[in-house]
Amino acid sequence: MLLGGIDGCKGGWLVIFKNEGAFSYEVISSIETLNQHFLQPSRFFIDMPIGLSSEGFTRTLETTLRTELQSRRSTIFNPPTREATYEPDRDKAKQLNKRIEGKSLSEQTLNIKSKIRELDHFLLHQKNLALELIESHPEICFKYLNKGEVLQSKKSTSEGIEDRLRLLSRYDQDAYALYQEILKNTQRKWVKRDDILDALVLCISNELSFLKKTYYFEDENVQDLKGLKIRLAYFK
Questions:
Q1: How far is CA 91 from the centre of its chain?
Q2: Mind listing the pLDDT tens digit for each residue in 193-234?
Q3: 7 falls in which pLDDT band (50, 70, 90)?
Q4: What predicted TM-score, i.e. pTM, was given to this entire model?
Q5: Reduced to 3 states, what is the DSSP secondary structure of residue 129?
Q6: Who contacts 193 (Cβ-Cβ below 8 Å, separation ≥6)?
């Protein structure tokens, strides 16, 4: 089983994975590429919403996640409804979301709406049963790798980067070297430092949870109206 973590980045998607104990990584331009590159049984934790609200159906998972992250709750954003996700005009998408859910869309959400749409479309048309994508969240993963304590430092600071690398290195001695390798071989305009940290913690948490036990935060609803499961995976 190939196990990995995926984070969206300016260059597309950063994929970090482990196969037979060794790290590898790729920057892929499209999520569809997973079907060509990973033909063997594979499981990925991905930092992107899976299962969306829609007319007559509300996703509730974010309320639980904000409670989990306390002072870092701002790292949790409200995903757009499926109707707003597929509306190309930003202003119309905000109006559509407000009509359906009673709230508009933040700039952060609007900036990644195309990636949410890309992933949603991929999952709704996915026929590769050997490939499993499970929603996760880097800061939730960091919290539970840190014995249930939320990391207060921000990934945008050198302190935050070092805090997270130090924590990851406790679980995998090759984590720091991989971070440096990706940093050296990619451009910051395509892959940011925090993108590397996020994909890396998702990969490590995925591997640990596969070998031991996968825990989930679950929505009030098992799945959305299109049948996609709404849950968020982590390891503790």
A1: 26
A2: 999 999 999 999 999 999 999 999 999 999 999 999 999 999
A3: very high
A4: 0.95
A5: coil
A6: 155, 161, 183
